[in-house]
Amino acid sequence: AFAFMAGKMPLVIFDLNKDAEEFRVFNSESRRPHQADAYDVFDQLTPLQRPELTFVEKPSDIKLGQDSRVAVICPMDCLLLLPHLVDPESHYEALSKRGLALSGLPTPDSEIVDTVLGPAQIPDHELVDSESNA
């Protein structure tokens, strides 16, 4: 749905759902069914409003023009190395429950618990327990 707002600009879609059967039927030169579906949907738009679709398997497959920046819907760690239109940390904060609770918008009473653990520390259950019980 968000892609309809993109207009005539590059639109990168991650092509993550590849199964073995699909690989046997479709080679890299042809469109897979879900790709064809995406093109069919966007072909309903006039050419001046139609995004320029590209499917990639991983962030390193994204090719940007000189001085280009990405505008992402949901900030993701795997895209941090790309130049962003909106600072990823600010974007994440704006989308977070913490950001909502501090936004000044009417929300239920909330207790904000700021964590100090980073993503790499989350698998360590002892660290998580010690932070949760602090």
Protein model, in words:
By secondary structure, the chain is α+β, with helices and mostly antiparallel strands. It is 28% helix and 7% strand. The chain has helices at 20-25, 33-42, 88-95, 97-101, 125-132, and strands spanning 10-14, 52-56. Strands 1-2 form a two-stranded parallel sheet. The longest helix is centred in the first third of the chain and has 10 residues, at 33-42. 1% of the residues are buried. The model has no long low-confidence stretch (mean pLDDT 84).
Q: How many strand units?
A: 2
Q: Over the alpha carbons, how many angstroms does the gyration radius reach? A: 20 Å
Calculate the terminal CA-CA distance, rounded to whole Å. 42 Å
Largest sheet: 2 strands, parallel
Task: Return the string of H and E elements.
Answer: EHHEHHH
- Based on secondary structure, the structural category is alpha+beta
Strand order of the largest sheet: 1-2
- The level of helicity is 25-40%
Low-confidence stretches: none
